[in-house]
Amino acid sequence: MQHKVIDTKEVVIRFTGDSGDGMQLTGTLFADASALFGNDISTFPDFPAEIRAPQGTVSGVSGFQVNIGSGEIKTPGDFCDVLVAMNPAALRSNAKWTKSTSTIILDSDTFDEKGIAKAGFKTMDPVTELKIQDRNIIFAAITSLTKESLKESGLDPKMIVRSKNMFTLGMCYYMFNRPMNFTFEYIEKKFKKNPALVEANKKVLQDGFNYAGNIHAIPNTYSIQPAKYEKGIYRNINGNQATAWGLLAASEKSGRPLFCGSYPITPATSILEELAKHKELNAKTLQCEDEIAGICTSIGAAYAGSFAVTTTSGPGLSLKSEALGLAMITELPLVIVDVQRGGPSTGIPTKTEQTDLNQALYGRNGECPIAVIAAHSPSHCFDAAFYSGKFAMEHMMPVMLLTEGFLGNGSEPWKIPSMSDYPSITPPVLDKPDEVPYWPFKRDEERLARRWALPGTVGLEHRVGGLEKNNDGTVSSDPLVHERMVAERAEKVARLANYIPDQKVIGDESGDVLIVGWGGTYGHLYTAVKELHAEGKKVSLAHFDYIFPLPKNTADIFGKFKKIIVCELNSGQFANYLRTQHQQFSYHQCNKVQGQPFIVKEIVDAVNAIL
Amino acid sequence: MKYTPQDFKSNQEVKWCPGCGDHAILASVQRAMPEICESLNYTKERFVFVSGIGCSSRFPYYMDTYGFHGIHGRASAIATGVKVANPTLTVWQVTGDGDALAIGGNHFIHAVRRNIDINIILFNNQIYGLTKGQYSPTSKLGMVTKTSPYGTVEHPFNPGALVLGSRGTFFARSLDVELKLTQDIMVESAKHDGTAVTEVLVNCVIFNDKTHFNLVDRENRADRVIVLKHGEPMIFGKDRDKGLMLDGIKLKVVKIGENGITEKDILVHDAKEENPGLHSMLIDMKFPEYPVALGVIRAVKDSTYDDNVRDQLAEVREKSKIKTMDDLLMSGATWEVK
């Protein structure tokens, strides 16, 4: 067979296997190697809620999809060019993500009678049963080849079998002409204390690479040239790490030490884990006894002068609701990060959704508006977290930051910014009495923010709390005082609109259809707009980072399009919110509530249907 | 700086019912403040009073210090946040039996477990007062209240036992009417490094009047309570003729001078003993079989959460190459596009 190296602009690879097969690591290493090589990438880990579901079953299949390209990559890709399936169950649940031109690499050792039956196939011929005979299917005896490769390694048999993911990774490196040095470095660092493991992992990786070159089953290999990036220093970053770093950045800029009270919850936990590492930057993290203590310790820390944050996902946000009201009425700065997942209740905890918008906007007792900001890509989580912190501290109020499992776990290359590129953060800290007595709820005229008097400051002793108060800080149930304070607090949030940037439009300023989105669907909506442009359609995109309050030019933008379609991963929460905020427009909807990101085609079809 | 109790009184009108035991505790705390400041070299602006919800939780409004009136049950969590954020503050939590032991039970035991350096004053009136008379987690079995018209069918908590069960380092008990004792305990509480819990048995004049009457009754009080002092024999009674001894693995009340028992046979209170065995028996003593133990029952040394946080921060800061956000951004795997 003639071997050809094909230059291609974009390739999607999906690694799938049992939860214990190490597919998340394999995918991450492949993605990182590609990013370091200079490709643009976008990743999508898709894993089950169970840590180790019964081996070989469909419910235990874990997947990691990565899209790499020499051009702009905005999504992890809809369908894959290469599917790696380490067992029959992985093939069964992922065959739907392949197309007729896909190559499928299978570990033939797992396709025995038992494995095929466990995956729920009715026949002994899974390929025919799935009707994927037209794909380029490579059966490789990955498990036995790994055993052969490491038979003299001195590792125990269990460890040897566990290394089969590295063999697979080696095969993929051959197929896509990836340099292996980044992965070698990773292995050397990871197993620093165990030279035998370093050698074994490197060997099996190299053997996988060589094997792929020898079998001639792989007719073509692909070369994806580095993307044309702006000059600068880059790194690969996932959304939760970016969120944590954005919060740390806001802490440094404001001079207020970071405090994070939190409780582990999928898929938000890694923000807490990341913050816990950075004590060198004065970040204090407190893993609490529950979600309520998470927010309440943070409120206490905010009162004492910290830049306080709490991180959670939907069910945790429900538990924090009462305390959100406390943060709001005491007018303390606090960032609440909700990494959304599929609900209601426990729902589908490892899957992505945008279904907490209503909860973020409305989920509290009393008149309790809270600013809501959303991140639109993994690396944008940094800016979204930074500005959430800036606005919380400068406006003296809680700010809700919505991200999504898709963003939190997904990663992309990021041009590393310098902190000098970011604006200052100047919270209204009062360090000595400027008038006697100090009125805790006296406001500045522009923002309506109160001053932040920190315990320990001489002469500013005061009391705050959940009871309604007058501006001087005294408890009051006077009907008119209550009504005025409710209005002042609401107006303070509304005035944030004076400080956020105008909404931008991608594409022409006017046209037939405006796609409206928010949050993690950005990449898919952006790609859909590009495709529609290529078809000659007059379609633009307004993707909202600032949800509440909305940018002031929102109505101006909406008014210039014949039709508006709101696309979101819920049943229409943003669309309904827009109906309350800008009633003069009518809104079409494109919704998906499957715990999965959009497929670009779904958006293109929805737009074409109303054009 | 010299303070007087007056310096700690806010300008807010105290709105507890006339005759409520809370007034007495407020007075005791305000009287203790100047002494605390003097002995620990504190200044007034370092005090933060945090509370949850309930009658007792109005307390911060009446202190001319920093104060935070939180939400029901969460005072321990709020106080923890305040203390961790700024360990130079002296943090006081005021709470009730419903606030601390029902809705806030989880936060309470975890604060004690962490041994965070806060002072918790638990007003135990064995009733929900602010919601007008429902049973609480410390109401006696069988007690008739609005939500237990035929008597409660559940066993009460003993707050001190919860503190010991959470590996607490400080537990004291007082009566609302024992103003001086409460004042002295507040000073000891302030001096203690770690979570210091003081249970004050308090009367609710409206919904649970005289619930502690057996103990507070002037006539008989000296025979029904024992005020424990570290290093002193466990002697009580109007005539100081009764004491506590060990009988096998149980405590027993003995009369000095009878059966050849002298003062030397009486147990000496050791609040600093790490083993909680005897402290547990003292905490559990109930009238009429035993006198109810008051005073500082347990005060042992252990590392505190806030100190540990501070030390770890300093250690990591010392070792880390990352000093600024820019350092962090550039750390790890990066690549340059030229």
Walkthrough of the structure:
Chain A contains 21 helices and 24 strands. With 611 residues, chain A is α/β, with parallel strands linked by helices. Chain A is globular, with a radius of gyration of 26 Å. The two termini of chain A are 48 Å apart. In chain B, helix 1 packs across helix 6 (179-191). In chain B, the strands form 2 sheets. In chain B, strands 2-1-3-4-6-5-11-7 form an 8-stranded mixed sheet, sandwiched between helices. In chain B, strands 8-9-10 form a 3-stranded antiparallel sheet. Chain B has helices spanning 22-40, 75-85, 97-103, 105-114, 159-165, 179-191, 213-216, 221-224, 277-284, 305-319, 325-330, and strands at 47-51, 66-69, 90-96, 118-124, 170-175, 196-201, 225-228, 235-236, 242-247, 250-255, 292-299, 335-337. Chain B has a domain at 5-222: Thiamin diphosphate (ThDP)-binding fold, Pyr/PP domains (Rossmann fold), CATH 3.40.50.970.
Structure annotation, total helices of chain A: 21
Lateral arrangement of strands in the main beta sheet of chain A: 11-10-12-13-15-14-22
| Mean of all residue-level pLDDT scores of chain B | 97
Task: Tell me which protein chains meet in the greatest interface and how many residues each side has.
Answer: A-B, 70 and 59 residues
**CATH homologous superfamily heading of the domain at 5-222 in chain B:** Thiamin diphosphate (ThDP)-binding fold, Pyr/PP domains
**In CATH, what is the class of the domain at 5-222 in chain B?**
Alpha Beta
- Give the strand content of chain A: 15-25%
What distance lies between the first and last C-alpha atoms of chain B, to the nearest angstrom? 64 Å
Examine the secondary-structure arrangement and name the CATH architecture of the domain at 5-222 in chain B: 3-Layer(aba) Sandwich
Class per helix and strand makeup of chain A? alpha/beta
CATH homologous superfamily heading of the largest domain in chain A: Pyruvate-ferredoxin oxidoreductase, PFOR, domain III
Question: End-to-end span of chain A in angstroms?
Answer: 48 Å
Architecture of the largest domain in chain A, according to CATH? Answer: 3-Layer(aba) Sandwich
CATH topology descriptor of the largest domain in chain A: Pyruvate-ferredoxin Oxidoreductase, domain 3
